[in-house]
From TrEMBL:
It is a multi-pass membrane protein. GO terms for molecular function: ammonium channel activity. Belongs to the ammonia transporter channel (TC 1.A.11.2) family. The keyword Metal-binding does not apply. The chain crosses the membrane at residues 27-47, 59-77, 113-134, 146-168, 180-201, 213-234, 246-267, 274-291, 297-318, 330-351, 384-407. It comes from the Eukaryota. It is found in: Cell membrane; Membrane. Residues 27-436 form the Ammonium transporter AmtB-like domain. The keyword Transport applies. This is Ammonium transporter. One of its GO terms (cellular component) is plasma membrane. InterPro entries: Ammonium/urea_transptr, Ammonium_transpt, Ammonium_transpt_CS, NH4_transpt_AmtB-like_dom.
Amino acid sequence: MADNSTLAATDGTGHAASYAINAGDTAWVMICACLVFIMSPALGLFYAGLARAKNALSLMYLTVLSVAVVSFQWYLIGYSLTFSETGSNFIGDSTHFLLRGVGTKPAFEGQTIPASAFMIFQAMFAAITPALAFGSAAERMSLGPAILFIFIWTTLVYDVITNWVWASNGWLAKLGIMDYAGGIPVHISSGLGAFAYALVLGKRRDYHKNANAPHNVTFVFLGLALMWFGWFAFNAGSALAANARSVNSLVATHISACTAAIVWVLLDYLKTRKWSIIGLCTGAVAGLATITPGSGFVTPSSALAFGALGSLVCYIAIHYKHKMGIDDCLDVFGVHYVGGLVGLILTGIFAERAVIALGFPEGTPLDDIPIGGWLDGNWKQVPVQLAGIAAVSIWSFVVTYIILMVINQVPSLYLRLADEDEIVGTDWAEMGERAYGYLDYEEAEAVTPDNINGHTLDNSKKQNIHVARLKRLLMIDRSTVIRGAPDLVEAPVMDYGQQKDLGAYDLHSLKPPIPSPTNEVIIQNVQVNQIDDSNSLQHKPTLHHTSSNDDTIQVLSSANETPLGSSSNSAKSK
């Protein structure tokens, strides 16, 4: 970002041209910062839809938490460590701690926007990056260490890598790396960070049964729509000016995303003979990630290759991830790391000086405009891109792994949920909240040594596994009981994608059977307290399902009940 479109051109005498703050450029960057912010909650919707219902809220929570924590870190030390003009080739210094000296003057020579506008735009980039990484750890990560992890990871991984690539004196910037809008700082770093997180946590306890069980495809669609919208600003705003290069970046971004979405849908159809909207959305994200490093270096025609090749390679990576033995729940590595890697290599091939020149003032001498990639005869550009990928990949993976292992040694900051909490779901066990208020809970299996799978971080041993009683979601809305047809009720949909028939089904086929002596009602002993509005809110109906054997299955729902299986109540469970 900082190497081509934002540095000053010369006036022909070797002196930097004079730049004044431009109101149009400033307004454009401010608007782009707001649009990039939208990408974080949009990512929350996207991730929540791909996960199961019992874990949806936690993923939304993490994306917004990332914005809050990273913005605070950026204000304290992050911006200074990343973009200090007086820093070393490896990391910035304390010049701009607490945003000292970040005001109305340009951030560095050649910009036409205030440093404060550049700062907030870059803050939104930093905010979404750790949120991307959480997708690989979904459905079994504890929320407790999240704040600490986000702060430390942003400081030691994102800030360091971004300084290498975009700071004026970063060593990769001096080497000549080409990364227009974040292929390395955002996608490579988050993809390897996600891989390390998944490796440390191990697989979900029911991984082989629920490897792919999106519960709300509508959320996925809405999340993709908002991310696509924000991605225009993510890439086009990286010109830091409302100029022709910014427009080229926007067009190339859109062409790549459209091409990738079409390719992915066709690949899905060839494999499954189904037209998948999940495939359409995933393909679009792959195309957006692939074009990110090259959007300001390549023509829209070259963007076709980015979208097609990025989609194909990401598709292969995702569908063969099981051979790696890593449970990357939401395919962060396969989409973002692989997409970023492909995009960086293709940038080294298709980058053109003619496109780079669009970001420079008219009359700038050709020798002052950086040369492109292989299309311009710059044969060393791809090796430079590969060197940058290798260095950042090693740093991101190793440092992330160390951070996670250290945090996991801190008492009460265990990275992985206890097994009973994982069965209950992160939302209820860790947050005490549910994405869908009409759902009830049913007492389920007792955890014994026989039904607990081993994990890399087995926190179940820290709990009394012989007496823990669990709850699992029973996705039945009482309003869907069909009056006059006592044997029918709408089917549960928690494990969306696994059930072949989502219509009504015979409750008598369930085990244990539910008796219906009068053949007029399905669920017996519904006690509704209607004393007043406040009591009705605090005391919800209690449903008793009695079986023919010695055990009784109860569906309990109470507004002030502490969720069984949570860390605060597990020891008290019987």
